[in-house]
Design goal:
- The protein has 10 helices and 15 strands.
- The protein has about 325 residues and is of the alpha+beta class.
- The protein has 2 domains: about 170 residues, Peroxisomal Thiolase, Chain A, domain 1; about 140 residues, Peroxisomal Thiolase, Chain A, domain 1 (3-Layer(aba) Sandwich).
- The strands form 5 sheets. The chain has a 5-stranded mixed sheet, with helices on both faces. It has a 4-stranded mixed sheet with strand order 8-15-14-13, sandwiched between helices.
- Strand 10 and strand 11 form a beta hairpin.
- The longest helix has 23 residues.
- The protein binds acetyl coenzyme *A.
- Acetyl coenzyme *A binds next to helix 2, helix 6, helix 7 and strand 14.
């Protein structure tokens, strides 16, 4: 048996923050942000919106697109670095808001690789026969963990959610997945603050050594894509769509080039969404599905990299 991705859904908060808007907030320019990152705008959650609200909206759209009811779902996994609260998991909150009764629900914390980590785990849970149909969601409210006075980080991120439905099938399906991490690199990208005895100790906002991240990200993504292709017995020439984590257009282009995938086969949404961390890959999948590029039968390679450091890739034939 295989686990197959059959439908997507996504949700972006209404408020758009453009590079021009940022010019009045920090010492930056539209030109600097565009040329360094490819980002033009990002969405920002409203004060009342939480990560689970974004996730629920994306999940409802995925269920509608799949023609399924909430009662069809027996597994909910949310990849997020910006949970509503310390506990319960955002996945349990999503379960309650959707009114799903007979399902297991848990979160994955692997920062920007969270969605590929989640898919890799769900693949095993479904292919083994333990579960039948999963909602796999990447959802983030990164705007809440940014220092809006730090121009080196606040211009790069955005909020949003993407969801996919993964179901059991006798046809492949997810062909291979690989996930990896290296905790010794945790200092180049992190949120060092912690909650202790009712107070926050340290800085609860994103810290990043941009150049170190850039250097590591490309090599890690290329290596894990190659390893995943080898495990599935395919090559870059077989890939219909490369759906990489959307951090920076220069990272995406360098990865595609080194991998030997033509640039026009990469799905790129970072210009409109910014870096939405664990939500970026499912958001990109949904955009590609809705605009007609991604079709049933296509071979899709997803690849993510993020804080931890963590990285991973999933190769799937779309169901
Ligand atoms: N606007 C204007 N100037 C800025 C800004 C800004 N928003 N941010 C930094 N600068 C300045 C710096 O202060 C520096 O000035 P100086 O030369 O006077 O000291 C100058 O721009 C160059 O800074 P660098 O950090 O060297 O710029 P770089 O070319 O490396 O680009 C960037 C920075 C875009 C962060 C790049 O390193 C990068 O893309 N790194 C990858 C990081 C990334 O994508 N992170 C996302 C999270 S990680 C993930 O998702 C995997």
């Amino acid at each position: 048996m295989y686990a197959t991705l059959i439908a997507t859904g996504s949700y972006l908060p209404e408020k758009i923050l453009t590079n021009k808007d940022l010019e009045s907030m920090v010492d930056t320019s539209d030109e600097w942000i565009r040329t360094r990152s490819g980002i033009e705008q990002r969405h920002i959650a409203a004060e009342h919106e939480t990560t689970s609200d974004l996730a629920v909206n994306a999940a409802k759209r995925a269920l509608t697109n799949a023609g399924l009811q909430t009662s069809d779902i027996d597994l909910i996994v949310v990849a997020t670095t910006t949970p509503d609260v310390i506990f319960p998991s955002t996945a349990c909150i999503v379960q309650d808001k959707l009114g799903i009764k007979n399902a297991a629900a848990f979160d994955i914390q692997a920062v920007c690789s969270g969605f590929v980590y989640a898919l890799s785990i769900v693949d095993k849970m479904i292919a083994s026969g333990a579960h039948n149909r999963a909602l796999v969601i990447g959802a983030e409210t990164y705007s809440r963990i940014l220092n809006w006075k730090d121009r080196a980080t606040c211009v790069l991120f955005g909020d949003g959610a993407g969801a996919v439905i993964v179901t059991r099938s006798d046809k492949p399906g997810i062909l291979a997945s690989k996930i990896q991490s290296d905790g010794s690199r945790r200092n180049i990208l992190n949120v060092p603050g912690q909650v202790r005895n009712g107070a926050i100790y340290g800085d609860p906002t994103v810290h990043m050594d941009g150049q170190a991240v850039f250097k590591f990200a490309v090599g890690a993504m290329v290596d894990i894509c190659n390893a995943t292709q080898a495990a599935a017995g395919v090559t870059s020439a077989d890939i219909d769509w490369l759906v990489p984590h959307q951090a920076n257009v220069r990272i995406i282009d360098a990865t595609a080039k080194k991998l030997g995938v033509p640039l026009e086969k990469s799905i790129v949404t970072v210009s409109k969404h910014g870096n939405t961390s664990a939500a970026s890959i499912p958001l990109a999948l949904d955009v590609a599905f809705r605009d007609g590029r991604l079709k049933p039968g296509n071979l899709v390679q997803m690849v993510g990299v993020g804080g931890g450091f963590t990285w991973g890739s999933v190769l799937a034939r779309w169901g």
